[in-house]
Amino acid sequence: MLYVRTEEEFKSYPWCRRILRGLGDEARKKRVPLQEIDDTAHIPRQDQEAAVLLIGASEAWIGREALRANAHGAHPIALTNRQPAGRDGALSAVMMDIPDSMRLAVEYLRGLGCERLALYGVNPNSTSDPWRAQVFERLTGGRGGGFVNEGSLQQTFERCRSRLESCDGVICASDYAALSLVR
């Protein structure tokens, strides 16, 4: 059985709902039993091949839940943006490759002749956007513009409109930032 444990505060977020929907679709296609749980204690101890997918954004939560899964005899698999910090116990991780995806985006735009690049819509409260911004800054040698979402994407656009017009290439930090910018 494959179990799914989601960090409570993120259950309503669109990215979390997309992950859950995608997991459910793939599990049905492959006929893998999948069960959402709200506590690892709900995993039957007799399930010798139990694995629990941990969907969350805080490293502390993932660490705690991984240890609880280990103690309960289930193998934890974190769906995360960063390699979990050094810890005890078994833990697998499926991660987004932010450094390489950012490198590919920058190289693509440069290949089109774009040199005045911007990273738009960085959410400082996100677990991955600040990391995206660090990688972008390193790749552009600090010459790229960063446009931080400090309230709403509409406010970000209004505040940064004149600076954005001087850019010849823009990478958006999220789907929502891209839709907002295009609109």
Itemize the secondary structure elements and their pairings.
Elements: E1 2-6, H1 14-30, E2 34-37, E3 51-55, H2 59-72, E4 75-80, E5 92-95, H3 98-111, E6 117-122, H4 129-139, E7 145-148, H5 153-164, E8 169-172, H6 175-182
Helix pairs in contact: 3-4
Structural class: alpha/beta
Mean pLDDT: 88
* Low-confidence blocks of residues: none
Number of strands: 8
Number of separate helices: 6
Tell me the fraction of residues in β-strands, as a range.
15-25%
Based on CA atoms alone, the radius of gyration comes out at 19 Å
Q: What does this entry look like structurally?
A:
This protein is of the alpha/beta class and 183 residues long. The strands form two sheets. Strands 2-1-3-4-5 form a five-stranded parallel β-sheet, with helices on both faces. Strands 7-6-8 form a three-stranded parallel β-sheet, with helices on both faces. It contains six helices and eight strands; from the N terminus they run E-H-E-E-H-E-E-H-E-H-E-H-E-H. It has helices at 14-30, 59-72, 98-111, 129-139, 153-164, 175-182, and strands at 2-6, 34-37, 51-55, 75-80, 92-95, 117-122, 145-148, 169-172. It is elongated, with a radius of gyration of 19 Å. Helix content is 42%, strand content 21%.
Give a short summary of the structure:
The chain is α/β, with parallel strands linked by helices and 183 residues long. It is built from six helices and eight strands.
